[in-house]
Amino acid sequence: MSDGLMGETPGRGGVVRDALLTETDERRALRDAVGKLVGSYGREYFQEVTRKGEKPDALWAEMGRSGFLGVHLPEEHGGGGGGLEDLAVVIEETAAQGCPMFMLVISPAIAGSLLTAHGSPEQKAQWLPGIADGTKKVCFAITEPDAGTNTHNITTTAHRVDGGGWRLRGQKYWTSGVDEADAVLVVARGAQEESTGSDERGRHPISLFLIPTDSPGLSWQRIDSALQIPEDQFTTFYDDVPVPASAVVGAEGAGLEAVFAGLNPERVSAAAQANGIARYALKRAARYASERTVWSAPIGSHQGIAHPLAKAYIEVQLARLMTQHAARLTDSGAEAGEASNIAKYSAGEAVVAALDHAIQIHGGNGLSNEYGLSDLWFTARMFRTAPVSKEMVLNHVAQHSLGLPKSY
Q1: By the 8 A CB rule, do 101 and 176 touch?
Q2: Distance CA 160, CA 382 (A)
Q3: pTM: predicted TM-score of the whole model, two decimal places
Q4: Best label site of 78, 242, 247, 357, fewest CB within 10 Å?
Q5: How far apart are CA 89 and CA 169, in angstroms?
Q6: So what's the pLDDT on residue 256?
Q7: 121 is in which domain, residue-wise?
């Protein structure tokens, strides 16, 4: 099942150095173990699963049994007791073998991190062990068609009901993997509006709810997207979905605090996945440029081929270093918003350049799915838009890093 990227030896073809990150022996061992496991499945397996409209269930289950999905979660809830840097290694190495699983970012990174930080003891006991071993998946619903990045503009509303709890009404957009999830974390407004109303800027209090996907009134419709990945994208509809008081994650009306416990890890994890895809593309390109001979010389000996690839390598390594830095800041409890945004921005730009050069170096072969590159294009391109657009990252840096006036 392997595509041949594992176990290469130094020499003429396609060996890409990976010696810039500073890591402990334990973390390097984790990186090697993940690469070996996922590499035994390889790009061809992942392409075949995606083409058939199936899920990489065998790979997911084996990663769960091996402890990779919950490497960052608390040991008392079945995890490995590590941190975000460990999970970023798992996500990057999975993508570097040509198997970028979005559910890794969604369930372990967003939901797992968020529930660890703000979940009730009952929520942690019910969900974290399953997230850690892969037997349960939790997705995340925040985006709405008319709200975009401005979470304060969401209209999905939790209406109080007599006897306690709420009825949830509204819809969400681009909810990834809800069809394979056991529960969905839903960001909604109005959980306290009867008592406190909106603030002076007309913003309603935001709450976060954990809702089983088999709840009555919850339905979804698939979005026909260009992404060639196993995880489908959906518009989700909440038609008077019953929500008990026990479903609130964190404090009622203070949902944004809980949400941000998942958003920074999401950005770091997305950056790690982009970096992994970029490494996969660079390895493919370097190998092809070393083996493909035109007029008695490997095409990689020409600077017109070599220089763009070297530039892409430099940009990817810089993105990896920033991603590692952001993960370490998060694990240390330091403010990591700026670093997480910069890591995501850098990785999003670097992966697009790396994949584009890799496809170009392959010539016409680069457009053939057989070479494992072209069907990654929209996945790589997505990282310039999600989980936060590059424009919003630039807004954040302009305002918070440079002290410029707010532009929106």
Answers
A1: no
A2: 37
A3: 0.93
A4: 242
A5: 38
A6: 86
A7: 25-137
Average pLDDT over residues 201-211: 83
> pLDDT (tens digit, 9 = 90+) per residue, 275-295?
999 999 999 999 999 999 999
Residues classed as catalytic: 266
User: Rounded to whole angstroms, how far apart are CA atoms 139 and 222?
Assistant: 15
Whether residues 238 and 201 fall in one domain: yes
Radius of gyration of the chain (CA): 22
- CATH number of the domain to which 318 belongs: 1.20.140.10
- Identity of residue 115: L
User: What is the total count of domains within the chain?
Assistant: 3
CATH of the domain at 171: 2.40.110.10
